[in-house]
Amino acid sequence: MNPRTVALAIITLIVVAGSLVGLFARRQRQIDLEQWACAGRRFGLVFVWLLMAGEMFTAYTFLGASGWAYSRGAPVLYVIGYWPLGCVIGFFILPLIWEVGRKHRMQTQADFFQVRYGSKALAALVALVGAVCLMPYLQLQLTGLGLIVEEASYGGIHRTPAIVTGFALVAAFVFVSGIRGVAWVSVVKDLLLIGAAVFIGFAVPHIYFGGIGRMFAELARFKPAHLVMPGSTPNLGHAWYFSTVLVSSLGFYMWPHFFAATFTAKNGEILRRNAIVMPLYALALPLMLFVGLAAVLALPGLRDGDLSVLLIVRKTFPAWFLGMVGGAGALTAMVAAAIQLLCAATLYAKNLIRPLFAPSMKEQQVALLSKLIVLALTAAAVLLAIYSSVSLVSLFLVGTNGVAQLFPGVFLGLFSRRATTVGICVGLVTGIAIAAVLTLTNRDPFHGLNAGFLALCFNFAVTVIVSALTRVRFASFDEIPAEVSSVSSAVVPPVTVH
Amino acid sequence: MKRPAFGSILLGLIPFAAGCFSVSLWDRIHPIVLGLPFNFFWLISWMILTPICLWGAYRIETRRDLDSKPQQTGTSGMVFDDKSEGGAA
């Protein structure tokens, strides 16, 4: 058998086996919106951990981070810098979000805004922002998937058909199983991915340089500028690092799918403990950076840095191993995309389309509508992935800069008695406008600072000023009666503490 | 909404001071520690030190929760259930 057949057969095997795990997780449960999107709020520590960690290990961490280590150098350190800090923010806000989420039966991030600020229009805006920002993240997964299949087939299968087939599978998978299926597949893909990361993270530097320490010694000798900021870029220096880490850590749990994962937990305690262990999970990440750095000397002159991991694995190991790594990566991209699709579709159906066009819709119909939207979004992301070529990390940063603008509404909603509906709304629009203009006109970073960070500063300032001038509707969640404001008819299980 | 305790907020700020605000102090190659350039070594260590800070904050917060529990249990309908440990599926 030629290496192409071996590699592709193993990838297919892993992807199919992984999907089957997801399909069987459905079992005999009746799936309504509450089950589909929140798993009935019964996840314990292990499952919340798997779900959240599974959401974080995506094609971005697997291919994108090493890609930036290869092409940009030290600025990629922001990836391992912001992750633990995002967990710190989560430690403080997630238990509170969980508490109000349960009281008011929230299922989505936009529900949070609807209850706290008493405005369906604001909720619709939040849903739109969240779902639109998910698109580049989704596109990133598709692009990653395409890269994997293209390289694993030694160029035999073109990227476009690879993307299309992969995502037909993802959409089918999301359709049938919902969030519970996704959490189960996360188990499989995380084991594979961490196994692959640990192995190649140590093996590649060892094979080419005789160890990680020797690799860095070589890099320090031949490419010292690559190892400190701004690395091999003209403008990603310390100010950029500081502003990007800050905006990424504040935006960490503002991703609508991370935010909504909060609601799957059966108590708030679980979320705190989860936040404590989460940074340790990221220890596989530096190893991926090492692979990218090894490729700087071992495989110089690549046109696309995002290919560095795949190409160095292909060059170093036999075809079956490339198949294993490719399969782990493909499953990762698919699971991540499934979660993002699930979340974006629920947001559109529940917080945007229903309140605006069909207020009388029942929960079952919303669930059905969500499924139709899954198809539409998949198609849109496939087109984006086929027709644009931006580095994976850059795509991620565009999305982060957008979702981080939701932070003032969440933070002030939890802790401030002075935030008003109009204030949050105007601030959000200001933030999004600034981030969008700077990013779309290629002025990110702006004078060395991350565009999302600048947008967030203005967002906060405008929110505070406008809030001071307008009337407060509810001063805090405590003043909102649960019966009046419930945003779903779901039956919430009692809190279980152990 | 119940705000976090002052002590736990301070513990939460430590990782921010170390991994974010002080970037120009630690972004350098030398001294090389355990074979890693100093900036890599520093950030990787904070992936391990951050959970320790959060664990401290967790201790503070759970103690506070225990203190305020008598008022809470009546209203929120807490159910204490030993069998639920880890069982999700």
CATH class of chain A: Mainly Alpha
Sheet-strand content of chain A, in percent, reads: under 5%
CATH homologous superfamily descriptor of chain A: Sodium/glucose cotransporter
The profile of the biggest β sheet of chain B is: none
In CATH, the architecture of chain A is Up-down Bundle
Characterize the overall form of chain A.
Answer: globular
Our count of helices of chain A gives 22
Kindly state the percentage of residues in helix of chain A: over 70%
The ordered string of helix (H) and strand (E) elements of chain A is HHHHHHHHHHHHHHHHHHHHHHE
CATH topology of chain A: Sodium/glucose cotransporter
**Tally of strands of chain B:** 1
- Report the structural category of chain A: mainly alpha
* Unreliable runs of chain A: none
The total strand number of chain A stands at 1
Oligomer: heterodimer
Distance between the termini of chain B: 31 Å
Which pair of chains forms the biggest interface, and how many residues does each contribute?
Answer: A-B, 64 and 51 residues
Average pLDDT of chain B, to the nearest integer? 79
Average pLDDT figure of chain A: 84
**Count of helices of chain B?**
3
Kindly describe this structure.
The complex is a heterodimer of chains A (498) and B (89). Chain A has 498 residues and is mainly α. Chain A has one domain (3-389): Up-down Bundle (Sodium/glucose cotransporter). Chain A has helices spanning 3-24, 33-38, 45-56, 59-71, 77-103, 109-117, 120-152, 159-209, 212-222, 224-227, 238-251, 256-261, 268-281, 284-298, 308-316, 319-357, 363-387, 392-403, 407-415, 421-440, 451-469, 482-485, and one strand spanning 496-497. The longest helix of chain A is centred in the middle third of the chain and has 51 residues, at 159-209. Chain A is globular. By secondary structure, chain B is mainly alpha-helical. At the A-B interface, helix 3, helix 5, helix 8, helix 9 and helix 11 of A face helix 1, helix 3 and strand 1 of B.
